[in-house]
Amino acid sequence: MTLLVLYAVLFCVPFVCASLPSLNDTYIHTLDSSNFSPSDTRTLWDILLSCGLTLFACTWTAIHPNIPGVNDGVVLIIFYRLCLMVVALFIPEFMTIWAMAQFHYAQRAAMDFNRGFGAQRAQSHSDDQAICQSERAVTEWTLTHGFFALMGGFVLYVKGEPRATLTPSELREFVYKGYVEMPVITEAEIEDRSKGDGLYKCIAILQLVWFVVQLIARTAQGLPVTLLEIDTLGVAALACIAYPFWWKKPKDIRRPYIVHWNSEG
Question: What does the pLDDT look like over 84-93, one tens digit per residue?
Answer without folding.
Answer: 888 888 888 8
